[in-house]
């Protein structure tokens, strides 16, 4: 299956500024498959070692000497390791801190050799090595579940992908194209973007087996909890995992997760699941300009899950009847999808972190689902599960922050409203004139590269 990151890997391969690459991402998002495919299509020789499966190989990196490491790998596997011709792939590199440190010396002593490493629990090890990391000596890329457009490519719906990629705000989409994309969006809501689930559906065209795949993926995630700490800590991780699945897009209150557990223990569980990318934490900020993180509060956040398909499974949502997507969970699914797309749709060398905004005041509470930077401007995004819905929170945000343009993502066809009027309940302002860019949910992954300015 094609992944967008392949283009960036190709650029990395030929770059004169190339460094050993560390590929980061959650378990089962397709890291190993993508690297193996990339190697097959771009290199004469490929040597993959897995430090988790072959624990004895960890000692090859004790010397931190690239040439000695290469000589011993060549002797063991009889694969030529030649600059420019061989891709050396070190999988599950988090097993060996020496292997991570050795990447620096590959960069300094064998810069012509292509080296890629990956690992599903890598971020925990990188965090522990923060003072001895080969900073400036490695490149990083990030992988996520398949985006909606990657899903469409897997289904051979390239015409629809072109329609999405060619869209420019101000243009229109025919109802026929729009409705067909919405049909497949409903399918994606159920299947999600985990490559195993997508591959199964593209081959079998059967939805009944998807739940079994999601169940297996979730069990593998929970099995990994044993590597994170004590039995009590593992229980906290499970509590948080199930809480997130039922509280997508809601401000976290630790007392709602587990009343008898101290908040610091639950906070640690949230941060660990974020670190291994099982969940993403959307943090509150009071800023409305670049950098949006300047007034960020790390202690106020709302969670989303790794993947919308797995989310549905763990939350017990049944979407086998794709014609009736409307459920009590519909709003949460829409928000999960959009935020997941904004994260996965970013450039792979950029770790996309998202923020949201809340205002808690008498008679004028407001919450913006996401504040998103496009170019050097920050836009408020409201996410709606249907075609309509009030925009009271957006009106308050735009008025309070003296902004002119907001973005709405919903199930309707695209449109732009110019110089719209709204009433607001603020001490110093009661009327607002603003612009509204309204886009269908399935365009969320394109937002980062769109020109949004409305004249």
Describe the overall structure:
- The protein has 455 residues and is an alpha/beta fold.
- 39% of the residues lie in helices and 21% in strands.
- The chain has 16 helices and 13 strands.
- It has helices at 5-14, 31-42, 66-77, 97-109, 122-128, 148-154, 158-165, 175-191, 195-204, 210-224, 231-246, 254-257, 263-275, 308-315, 330-344, 392-401, and strands at 21-24, 45-50, 86-91, 114-119, 139-142, 279-285, 296-305, 355-359, 366-374, 377-383, 405-410, 415-426, 429-440.
- The model has no long low-confidence stretch (mean pLDDT 92).
The level of helicity is 25-40%
Low-pLDDT segments, ≥5 res: none
DSSP summary: helix tally: 16
SS content category: alpha/beta
Question: Which percent band covers the strand fraction?
Answer: 15-25%
* Mean of residue pLDDT values: 92
Distance between termini? 41 Å
